[in-house]
């Protein structure tokens, strides 16, 4: 059993850039499927005028600390490197959340 956090603006598609996400939907995955657990509100990690703020990255890492991976539509190289250095698995994907999660389960990625 795994938990996956998804950056989404509409709750249906993986369509949000990591740094712009105001919330993450969390799902539980097992070999037979997935189920929605909750929504976790976040402060966007990247503020357009301020750029990257690793303090905000750390808050998101803490918010999602029980998750095994993070799905985003896009993430910048600096943010990705920072998350990876903190042992956060992050994947760039896009599409309908249900279809993406089903593929992850079928391909045994997580």
From TrEMBL:
Domain Dinitrogenase iron-molybdenum cofactor biosynthesis: 13-105
Pfam family for this entry, one: Nitro_FeMo-Co
Protein name as annotated: Dinitrogenase iron-molybdenum cofactor biosynthesis protein
Database matches in InterPro entries: Di-Nase_FeMo-co_biosynth, DiNase_FeMo-co_biosyn_sf, NifX/NifY_domain
Coiled-coil residues: none
Source organism, top-level taxon: Bacteria
């Amino acid at each position: 059993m795994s938990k996956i956090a998804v950056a989404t603006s509409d709750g249906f598609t993986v369509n949000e850039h990591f740094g712009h996400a105001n919330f993450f939907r969390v799902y539980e995955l097992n070999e037979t499927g997935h189920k929605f657990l909750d929504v976790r509100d976040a402060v966007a990690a990247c503020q357009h005028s301020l750029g990257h703020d690793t303090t905000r990255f750390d808050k998101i890492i803490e918010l999602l600390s029980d998750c095994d991976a993070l799905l985003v539509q896009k993430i910048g190289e600096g943010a990705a490197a920072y998350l990876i250095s903190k042992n956060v698995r992050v994947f760039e994907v896009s599409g309908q959340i249900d279809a993406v999660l089903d593929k992850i389960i079928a391909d045994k990625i997580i």
